[in-house]
Amino acid sequence: MFPSLAALNPIVLLLFLLLAWVFTWSYRPSLLQWLSSHLLGGHKPSVFYQEGSAFCDRIVNKCPILQEKYTPPFLWGRSGHVQSIMFGLIGRFNVRPIRGHQRYSVATSDGSTLYYDLHEPEGDKEDCPYTILVCPGIGNSSESKYMSTFTSHALACGFRVLLYNHLGALKGEKLTGPRIFTYGGTGDLSAIFDHASKLHPNTRWVGIGFSLGGCILTRFLGEDSERRRKFVCAASVCQGYDPMLCMSYLNDWTNLRCFYNYIITQKQLAFIRRHSDTLLTSSSKAITHDHNLSDVNCKQKLSQQSTDDPRIHPNPNLNTPSKTTQSHPLIYHCHGNYDHNGIALDISRVQPPDYQRLNRVTSMLDLDEFYTRRVCGFSSVVDLYRWTSCIKLLYEINDLPVLIVNTNDDPLVVLANTRILDIPKSYVEHNSNALLVIPKHGGHLGFFEGGAIVPNTTSWIDRLLVQYAQACSNELTD
Questions:
Q1: CA 401 to CA 83: how far, in whole Å?
Q2: What is the H or E stretch that residue 435 is in?
């Protein structure tokens, strides 16, 4: 009466087995979870901190997630490429919009309008002593799905959440000034922080930055010791620390890095085009390069300095960061005076973009040569990247608990066989309040967790960040 398995079409049989698998996972999770754990297996994240640090010992013990295995999605979660692509395409799964927040606007002296979203936890707002300041990745905003899942989890745990929107990132808001966000600019974040501090003058802050947001947050905290006193702790997730070093690896086809470089470039270019009526003038003439670096020469110089320059090697003898950062070999110096958003104070240094070449760019290095460094007033891309680097200011943060998270399979911020990992490792070795966590999987900002195909809505990094914030805040009351 029923056909044998051999008589079934192989595709039908495959679909049948796949549906059976999904059904079993959904309604009988224990079996497949056991197989996932023991056959493919999760892994505990690697944790690094200064030997003998009693503070870090206590924080690690108060974060159960650091004692557990991180188990990514069963079928695809062990590929950093797939995690990164899924994050870029989908963001997070089963995300529900958060309602009830309030959006504030802040006007700046150059005519720009900044926006931030403030989410209050349930219950009495005055009883919430802690506010999490979140700085998202490049071109992202409070509309990004991973911002929603983190915010939902943090609100459920009793935190107030402030979501910083990069200038120009909100799709429904037009620019009112002649600029967008810059890679390492802290002026806009400072204006929003000051505005929110007046609304909640007694709150204690927790700073969290994702990718580029981690670089901006590091610079923001490192440049002002008085500001750091208002913070309980800070966390940086998947940031690259040094643009010069990262860009030298992204211009390589190894591990498909050039592919990711192209995707990021096109996304940023689309971002600029969306605001072209404000950012770009009507002129279409290309700008001559004269004394500035040409496209080819810029790439050659950047590659040479990133691989051969001894300044990128960490100093193993660094003992007192606050006193030695000026001579630390990781520190780059940039000529010229710039404001906190990375715009030249001398307006004559600002140049119009090279429009003809801008429309044909295929890498971030090209985009920054023909657009970013010109509108900001830098003489070369090398100077732009030197100014953007957060390393000098990272070493100034020696009086605040800091969590740094990178992944072993991040295709953008590559740790394996590169010098990037030396930066956070050197920092935590000489800072008794710093913690470096490196899970085996997670990709770039993915950190999807659980499930066979469809992962949990709340990601592994969401849980880690909230547990870390709770542990540090508990330190103040214990």
A1: 29
A2: strand 434-438
Q: Which whole-number Å values give the CA distances from 275 to 50, 121, 233, in the listed order?
A: 46, 34, 35
**Section 17-41 average pLDDT:** 53
| Residue range 105-146, pLDDT digits in tens | 999 988 899 999 999 997 766 678 999 999 999 989 999 999
Extents of the domains making up the chain: 87-245+394-477
Q: Work out the number of other CB atoms within 10 angstroms of the CB of residue 349.
A: 16
Q: Other CB atoms closer than 10 Å to residue 276's CB: what's the count?
A: 9
User: What is the pTM assigned to this prediction?
Assistant: 0.82
The three-point CA angle 443-22-65 to 5° equals 40
Give the separation between CA 109 and CA 6, rounded to whole angstroms: 74
Instruction: Indicate whether 426 pLDDT > 60.
Output: yes
Task: Kindly state the helix (H) or strand (E) to which residue 131 belongs, with its residue range.
Answer: strand 130-135
Q: How many CB atoms lie within 10 A of CB 222?
A: 23
pLDDT in tens, 59-75: 999 999 999 999 999 88
**DSSP-assigned letters across all residues of 351-373:** ----HHHHTT--SHHHHIIIIIH
Phi, psi of 113 (to 5 degrees): -120, 120
Tell me the two tokens of residue 443: 């990709």
Three-class SS state of 147: helix
E-state strands within 139-259: 160-164, 204-210, 231-237
In the predicted model, is pLDDT for residue 87 greater than 50? yes
Instruction: State which amino acid sits at residue 73.
Output: P
Question: What CA–CA distance (Å, rounded) separates 95 from 75?
Answer: 21
Rounded mean pLDDT of 153-169?
95
In sequence order, which residues have a C-beta less than 8 Å from that of residue 142 and are 6 or more positions away?
116, 117, 136, 163, 165, 170
Token pair of 228 as six digits = 């750091």
Q: For 63-92, b where at least 16 C-beta lie within 10 A, e where not — what string?
A: bebbeeebbbbbbbbbbbbbbbbbbbeebb
| CATH code for the part of the protein at 87-245+394-477 | 3.40.50.1820
Section 218-237 average pLDDT: 96
Judge whether residue 195 has pLDDT over 50: yes
Q: Which carries the bigger pLDDT value, residue 452 or residue 467? A: 467
State how far Cα 464 lies from the chain centre: 15
- Asked if the model's pLDDT at residue 338 lies above 90, the reply is no
CB atoms within 10 A of CB 32: 17
CA distance 202 to 199: 9
